[in-house]
Amino acid sequence: MLKFGMVIGLSIALLGASFGDAAPTKALAEGAEYYVSPSGSDSNAGTLASPWKTLQHAADVATPGSKVYVRGGVYNQKLKITRSGSAAQGAITFSNYASEVPVIDGTGLTVSGSEGIVDLTDASYVTINGFEIRNYTTTKSGVMPMGIYVHGAGSNITLSNNKVHDIKNTATPKGMSGRDAHGIAVYGTKAPDSIKNITIDGNELYNLVLGSSESLVVNGNVDTFNITNNVIHDNDNIGIDVIGFEGKSPNAAYDQARNGLIKGNKVYNITSSKNPSYEKGSTEAGGIYVDGGKDSIIEQNYSYNNDIGIEIASEHAGKSTSNITVRSNLIYKNSLTGIAMGGYDTERGSTVNCKIVNNTLYKNDSLGGGNGQLYVQYDTQNNVIKNNIMVADSSDVLIYNEYTKNTGNIVDYNLYFAPGGNANASWTWKSKEYTGFSAYKTGTGNDAHSMFADPKFVNVSLNDYHLQSTSPAIDAGSTDTAIIGEYDLDGNARVQGAAVNIGAYE
After folding, report:
1. Which residue, among 72, 123, 120, 70, has the nearest Cα to 100 in the 3D structure?
2. What is the number of other CB atoms lying within 10 angstroms of the CB of residue 170?
3. In this structure, what are the phi and psi dihedrals at residue 253, rounded to the nearest 5 degrees?
4. DSSP single-letter state for residue 275
5. Which of 31, 161, 1, 5 lies closest to 98 in space, CA to CA?
6. Contact 152, 195 (CB under 8 A)
7. What tens-digit pLDDT sequence spans the chain (506 residues)?
8. Where are the domains positioned within the chain?
9. Signal peptide: which range, if any (predicted)?
10. Does domain 30-438 have CATH number 2.160.20.10?
């Protein structure tokens, strides 16, 4: 957390003595603290008593270790950052001052190409904290407004505690292309140098009109990222996306976002149903989506009232999403399905060597389309699906797998339940439908240690999916320490009894 209080007497005196009548940029000291205010002037000294006026002036003169504190008010201006901090001297930090809220407002500003109203190019050791970023919009096809855009290469960037909303592209769509926007976007567009060690924490993103793009995305040559504790809601396309194989990196060997942690986020009301870039009524927007990313963990998130809760898939033929662990998440009341994996048709790629463990899925497939709680699509290989609670919605469908290209997948130690009871519960595996738990186990060889039983949640009417003390899910899971993680959704130790609980809560 940034320290906003400061001792300014000596600093102001020294700055005043240094500046005299000279231009302020000639006396900037490394590691200094500077101030921007709507009532300031760029010819001022940049102190608390004599602040600058524009964010861009601060960005143009800041040096490693500088802290730029921005006073509350509206800044109808863009912020372009190309300077970097350093490991030795510290980050260049732009932050709100004390409890004040600076608002970067894009009203009336032109979007040029793919552009963030806050735009970081080839920057390292930069922090953006505590801003409201809003109203950066276009009606023009082929340009892409973004709230915060990090691109090129760089490292050690932190985007924290910002509120990003009303970033919109409202152009008339031409199919899926040309009508795009992002709330926060990180594009690694160089190689072999990546965007590395980026933290996106504690932000809120909402009321975004995105076309075929995403609320928060890491794409291309992005290596080692943390997307944590964000709240993303009420947008017309994907909430969080981790992407590979789209050609963002000039070298295909580096064109996958990787080594990421997606943790502690709350994603809800994400739907493409009214997005004109899609067919009318389409429900294709995932709360959390990995499309071609690899080597990442998705844990302790809430994903609800979206089209899809969590999806780990690949849209690119011959390419795979791989080594993703999805664990200890609560996924409920999503309209199409809870968790989806594999390519959405035979022209897509695969999901390989992924783990789906200790999640609670409750009454997804809420539109009754029959996709179930777990939707296993085309070409899934060597994945592990264990320790999950799956409670069907009115369709009574628990797992739906219409494709036969399904090899080496392990499904076990799960707890299933359906409102129609065992007699009506349905599983489809390798395109064959089974009704009743016994028929499904016998026909597929899956779930030898699993059960069909009421999980006995505390209070589903209040969306409290903790387990009652008499729940059959308690101590009934597979204690595979290599994949279950250390903590449950509440942050409690993952194993407390004789074995691990099934579901998100210990």
Report:
1. 72
2. 14
3. -65, -20
4. -
5. 5
6. yes
7. 333 333 333 333 333 333 233 334 434 445 799 999 999 999 999 999 999 999 999 999 999 999 999 999 999 999 999 999 999 999 999 999 999 999 999 999 999 999 999 999 999 999 999 999 999 999 999 999 999 999 999 999 999 999 999 999 999 877 667 799 999 999 999 999 999 999 999 999 999 999 999 999 999 999 999 999 999 999 999 999 999 999 999 999 999 999 999 999 999 999 999 999 888 888 999 999 999 999 999 999 999 999 999 999 999 999 999 999 999 999 999 999 999 999 999 999 999 999 999 999 999 999 999 999 999 999 999 999 999 999 999 999 999 999 999 999 999 999 999 999 999 999 999 999 999 999 999 999 999 999 999 999 999 999 999 999 999 999 999 999 999 999 999 999 999 888 999 999 99
8. 30-438
9. 1-22
10. yes
Give the span between the Cα atoms of 80 and 76, in whole angstroms. 13
Q: Please count the helices (runs of H) and the strands (runs of E) in the chain.
A: 4, 44
Residue 273: DSSP 8-state: T
Q: Of 67, 121, 120, 74, whose CA–CA distance to 95 is shortest?
A: 67
Place of tokens 């407004």: 145
Q: How far is CA 45 from CA 16, 25, 73, 97, 346, in A?
A: 8, 8, 20, 17, 63
Which helix (H) or strand (E) is 11 found in, with range? helix 9-19
Q: Scanning the structure block, which residue is given the tokens 């009934």? A: 476
